[in-house]
Design goal:
The chain has 40 helices and 21 strands. Strands 2, 3, 6, 11, 12, 13, 15 and 16 form an 8-stranded mixed β-sheet that branches. A 6-stranded antiparallel β-sheet has the order 4-14-7-8-9-10, with no helix packed on it. A 3-stranded antiparallel β-sheet has the order 20-19-21.
């Protein structure tokens, strides 16, 4: 009996405790229930009547709202309750989101309007800009007819604002507003009582745009927008709370006031309950545990609180499955909870507590919808929050996101279903740039670093500017640290939920993200990740990888991707091209090699012939690979993260780094223009001086604005930290590729983007980061030169590697090597390679120009020779430099073939000479191919010039295709380059042409003389097509001029005849004089000694400072020698007459001296020797030639 009494007393105490909780949560404040007319007294509240109490309280709240809304009900809008874009009104090509609020244009100019209109009252809607290009946004009537040329504002009764061009539009256009940026929120307001339209940018009014809007019967205005190609935005007509509400104006979509009031009331009760729940979960009281209650009450006080919360959450759940209520009510509530947690040292936050309650009591579909709306609202708030100098708003959204992700079930659900699937999670990792106003506040003083001499004020400005950049870097760093914490939370491998850890899911989603943004998909992806976001994502992932690698005890300076990763499918590379071609093809060819290699690596496994088939099942092997039970598997996940980083840099991050250089180039142009104005100001007076001063002020203002943007770029994009990220990645890539190359044929399995990323990293370090982050700012600068050598060695060994079959990749490697030989520092790195690497590179460059892309190889040889050839010491060809000076054009930095300073390489020239001498057959094949390509290139060039000449002689006006002009200029450049390579070869190894013991030397000398004479005759003919086109200055053919090609030809002749040994000189002279097309007058042209022609400006090498006195003397000696020898030869020829029947019918210059067998046809020895280099058939009958016999011996 005593036990029964104790139990009953205990039950009574617990019932009293439960009722106290109910009163504490639902009592106090609000409308107190009375005891009459069916109301429930607070003292009698319990679990049985709490539902009735909540329903009646919510009903009172709704009644109060109805009373106030009936008094303030506004009219003047026509259309559905849910306002979206009307798809049927679309003009052009638009991609529209599922909610019909997001737009992306895929045509030149696309227009669309909403599905509701207004005819009286004051209304507003907002547009959140996803890009900053040409968009015309505003209002239009239904009668406005749009097209892909005319959009909003281009017709009557349509009014628009364009922040890209800073203008307003209503048929005519006027300056209005200010420039907008990506991430801005543009408010569009219309007052139909006064006929006024105005626009807001981030809550700041830009002034009345139109004050004479036509109003009256029959006129109703629809929200309407027009977007240029690739522009995008998201509209908010009231489906979520307006970010910048305008007093007196209403959103187009009705505000759900009743639901808002109920939600706020429920959240008020929830906050009280949460305080109890938070204290219980932090300090559980075991005394209150009830032993003899039914099972649902045995959980203790926490279970009692959940019972109290159940009726509340039952009503709150359906409400929170609404985007407006989630963003307008729940999100501020969560921010308040987070602020309460600040300064509290408890291990569990209130955010975690409310998430536990939601996961316990809400229906799954309501919970999932609510969580999705929360994250969407957080991302929208972060992306479109005003960028203040301290980034307080951005940090607020990031910190709340981090708090949500610290709850394990929430994190897993969002990562699995929302972060990458419903939203662009990487947007959270970008720091939105400050606009002009914010930059002016952060960077008050701008230092223009182009001034050579600085006075005291300049030094002060420089110090202030650098201080501002440092402050900007520190402020941005604070935001980046929060972003990094979010990534670390998502990449946590220790917290397993429902059999999966978040790291597994994150890597899977990252791989899908990269695949989607890689391009080349069968279905084009419209909403690709913006490049600035991708670059920010790349740097955060690099920081994440550094932390995880260090925590795993792996050496940061020894990290690389194992070669086995590329063929064992531990990382599935779907639709990724390999260095050696398609993976299926490689597996078919090297199946045995792969199986053997895998069996070696897995010593515990017997040789299994089915191993390869199992490995091809990438998904299964991947799921096994990503278990995190041991260090080995943990290392595998880090390798997959590294692989994703490499791919991300390749597909997007590098493109953004390259894009950011445009500002630097623009500043270079403005600086040049400012210097020109300052020069003119020194000599101009009067009205011209005033105009110049105004121009100077405009340039200065633009430079100051650009200088502030450059401060942001230098601090955030091209900072030393960012440089260190790319440098570290380059080290990893080189280490990976070099190790893979040592595996032989397995190197073919390496994805091509590894090589592309390696090339891009080196290019970025050399061209993008300086001068903001020079090379000596690198943390490992001491080993920077060694890294350059290692990179150069990789290029030298692989630009002609037979294992590389991808044509585009081969071209990239050759172009990278061509760029590498352009600069003294990188050329020195190539010269510092070991001797074997230099010889490999030299041998590859001197392979025959057949069956391969040879233009880049030829250009590399030119760069190695430039500075040694005849008058070949210029950075810019003299005629181009003159044109640039006349037109005040800055030096074209983007044209390395024109503007690079000469830096010849004696080391590689010596290797080339040695290799050509030691490999006579290979040298003969190389020389033959160069002569063949020169003959083709120059013939094509002359043929096109003749077409241009014929077109210019026609009486009617003829337009020449720009593509034809480009091909013509390309052929000229190719011919010029081939001539320079021939000059190099003749200078280094003249024996190839003059030594009879060398194979085909006589033929090569004859062919060389033929080509030299052909070039001289065509170029020096004053009535010919070359002189005509060169004098016409046709756009696209600016590079065509006498100087570059004549100096190349002169260099060949000087090397052969003047610089050669006496015996070689004699042989060369005889060969030249024996050439029927040789004309001494073409040599006179070089020094201006030929007869003048009308309308032709005389040409002489003496007029160019690039030609030294010593070289002029050599040309004079050459002309004098050839003239004297030619006169003697002519006299001798006059004594000998050849019978017409005995003249070679191919060249009509030499007597017949050879008979072909078995067909018995005849020609001169020279013609048939040249013919047999590329053909085996007779000239005349096409019969196969078995042998050639001298004609004179047969007669004897």
């Amino acid at each position: 009996m005593e036990c029964s009494n104790d139990q009953m007393r205990k039950i009574a105490e617990d019932e009293h405790c439960l009722e106290s909780m109910i009163k504490q949560v639902y009592g106090g404040g609000g409308n107190q229930p009375l005891g009459e007319h069916g109301h429930i007294l607070l003292d009698s509240l319990n679990l049985e009547n709490i539902d009735d109490f909540i329903d009646k309280e919510l009903k009172k709240t709704v009644q109060l709202v109805e009373m106030s809304s009936s008094m303030n009900e506004s009219k003047g809008v026509l259309g559905p309750d849910k306002v979206i874009f009307d798809v049927s009104s679309n003009v052009g090509s638009l991609v529209i989101d599922r909610d019909r609020l997001g737009l992306s244009s895929q045509s030149n100019f696309s227009s669309i309007r909403a599905n509701c209109c207004v005819y009286k009252g004051k209304w507003q809607y907002e547009l959140m800009l996803g890009s900053k290009g040409v968009m015309q946004i505003g209002w239009a009537t239904i009668n406005c007819k749009f097209s892909q040329e005319k959009g909003v504002g281009d017709t009557f009764h349509s009014y628009a604002y364009d922040g890209h061009r800073v203008r307003k539009w209503n048929v005519s256009t006027y300056k209005y507003g200010e420039s907008w940026l990506t991430g801005d929120v543009i408010g569009c307001a219309i007052d139909l009582d006064k006929g006024v339209i105005g626009f807001y940018r981030n809550g700041v009014y830009l002034g009345d745009a139109f004050d004479n809007v036509k109003i009256g019967p029959g006129l109703a205005y629809f929200p309407a927008v027009s977007l240029a190609y690739n522009e995008n935005l998201v509209a908010n007509f009231g489906s979520t709370p307006i970010r910048y509400p305008i007093p007196g104006y209403s959103p187009l979509q009705q505000y759900p006031k009743k639901d808002v009031a109920q939600t706020n009331q429920l959240l008020t009760w929830l906050e009280k309950l949460l305080d109890l729940y938070y204290s219980v979960t932090q300090e559980p009281n075991p005394i209150l545990v009830v032993r003899n209650w039914p099972p649902q009450f045995k959980q203790g006080l926490k279970a009692q609180l959940l019972l109290v919360a159940a009726p509340l959450m039952h009503r709150l759940g359906p409400l929170l499955a609404n985007a407006f209520l989630t963003e307008g009510c729940l999100l501020p509530f969560l921010f308040d909870l987070y602020n309460k947690d600040q300064g509290c040292m408890d291990s569990k936050s209130r955010i975690t507590s409310i998430l536990e309650i939601m996961w316990s009591l809400m229906e799954p579909h309501e919970l999932h919808q609510c969580l999705e709306f929360i994250v969407v609202a957080l991302l929208t708030g972060y992306r479109f929050a005003p960028a203040t100098p301290e980034f307080h708003e951005q940090k607020k959204y990031l910190l709340l996101t981090l708090a949500l992700l610290q709850h394990t079930p929430t994190k897993h659900y969002l990562l699995q279903n929302v972060l990458f699937d419903k939203i662009k999670f990487p947007v959270f990792l970008e720091v939105k740039p400050l606009d002009n106003t914010g930059l002016a506040e952060v960077v008050p003083e701008v230092w223009l670093d182009f001034k050579q001499e600085m006075n005291e004020p300049d030094l002060f400005r420089k110090a202030c500017y650098q201080k501002s950049c440092t402050h900007l870097k520190l402020v941005v760093k604070e935001v980046e640290l929060v972003q990094l914490e979010i990534l670390l939370e998502l990449f946590d491998a220790s917290n397993v939920y429902q059999g999966q850890c978040s790291r597994c899911i994150f890597l899977l989603k990252l791989r899908e993200f990269l695949k989607e943004n890689s391009g080349g998909a069968r279905v084009p992806v419209v909403h690709l990740c913006p490049l600035p976001v991708a670059l920010a994502f790349f740097h955060r992932l690099i920081s994440l990888l550094r932390i995880c690698v260090s925590a795993s005890g792996i050496d940061l300076n020894g990290l690389s991707v194992p070669c086995s990763t590329f063929y064992d499918n531990s990382i599935p590379y779907l639709e990724v091209q390999r260095i050696g071609g398609l993976q299926s093809h490689l597996l078919r060819i090297y199946q045995d090699v792969v199986v053997n290699e895998i069996s070696k690596q897995k010593a515990s496994t017997e040789n299994d012939p089915i191993a390869l088939g199992k490995l091809l099942k990438s998904e299964k092997s991947k799921s096994q690979h990503l278990r995190h039970a041991g260090d080995k598997d943990n290392f595998g996940t880090l390798i997959e993260l590294l692989d994703g980083i490499v791919r991300l840099y390749h597909i997007a991050a590098h493109r953004q780094l390259e894009k950011m250089c445009a500002l630097r180039d623009s500043m270079h142009e403005y600086r040049h223009a400012l210097k020109e104005v300052e020069k003119r100001l020194k000599v101009q007076k009067g009205d011209v001086e005033e105009e110049l001063n105004r121009a100077k002020q405009v340039f200065l203002e633009e430079l100051i604005e650009q200088g502030r943007h450059q401060a942001w770029i230098s601090s955030v994009v091209y900072s030393s930290d960012r440089q260190a990220d790319v440098y570290w990645l380059l080290q990893i890539l080189l280490r990976t590729l070099c190790q893979a190359s040592e595996t032989g044929v397995l190197f073919s399995f390496v994805p091509d983007f590894y090589v592309e990323a390696c090339i891009k990293c080196c290019h970025a370090l050399r061209n993008f980061f300086p001068p903001a982050a020079p090379a000596d700012s690198l943390p490992a600068f001491a080993g920077h030169h060694e890294l350059l050598i290692k990179y150069g060695s990789f290029l030298a060994h692989h630009f002609a590697d037979e294992r590389v079959v991808n044509a585009e990749l081969k071209d990239s490697l050759v172009q990278a090597l061509a760029s590498y030989v352009c600069y003294p520092a990188t050329l020195q790195a190539l010269e510092s390679m070991d001797s074997d690497s230099r010889l490999v590179m030299t041998k590859a460059l001197l392979q025959p120009y057949e069956n391969r892309a040879w233009a880049q190889s030829n250009w590399i040889l030119i760069r190695l020779w430039k500075g040694c050839g005849f008058a070949f010491r210029y950075s810019v060809s003299p005629h181009m430099a003159k044109k640039m000076n006349c037109k005040s054009i800055p030096l074209p930095e983007a044209l390395p073939t024109i503007s690079q300073t000469p830096c010849p390489s004696p080391v590689f020239l010596e290797h080339a000479s040695q290799w050509l001498l030691e490999n006579p057959e290979a040298a003969a094949a190389f020389i033959s191919s160069v002569l063949n390509q020169l003959n083709w290139a120059f013939s094509e060039f002359i043929g096109m010039l003749q077409e241009i000449q014929n077109a210019s002689n026609r009486p009617e006006r003829v337009f020449i295709d720009s593509r034809q002009l480009k091909i013509c200029a390309t052929c000229f450049d190719l011919a010029l380059g081939l001539l320079r390579v021939l000059e190099m070869t003749v200078h280094l190894v003249p024996q190839l042409f003059t030594d009879p013991s060398r194979p085909s030397s006589e033929i090569f000398l004859t062919r060389l003389c033929q080509l030299v004479c052909q070039v001289l005759n065509r170029v020096t003919s004053k009535s010919g097509c070359f002189c005509l086109v060169a004098s016409m200055e046709i756009p696209g053919l600016e590079t065509i001029d006498h100087f570059p090609i004549l100096t190349a030809v002169t260099g060949i002749l000087v090397s052969l005849i003047i610089d050669g040994l006496p015996k070689s000189q004699k042989k060369a002279v005889n060969a030249l004089l024996s050439e029927p097309s040789f004309q001494p007058s073409s040599l006179d042209f070089l020094l201006g000694s030929s007869p003048e022609a009308p309308n032709f400006k005389p040409f002489s090498l003496r007029d160019y400072k690039e030609v030294s006195k010593e070289e002029i003397e050599k040309v004079e000696n050459l002309i004098q020698l050839l003239h004297s020898k030619y006169d003697i030869a002519q006299q001798n020829r006059g004594l000998e007459e050849i019978d017409d029947d005995l003249v070679c019918t191919i060249c009509y210059a030499n007597p017949k001296s050879a008979r072909f067998h078995p067909c018995q046809h005849q020609s001169c020895r020279s013609c048939i020797s040249l013919h047999l280099l590329s053909h085996k058939e007779c000239f005349f009958c096409k019969a196969l030639i078995e042998c050639i016999k001298p004609l004179q011996l047969e007669k004897k």
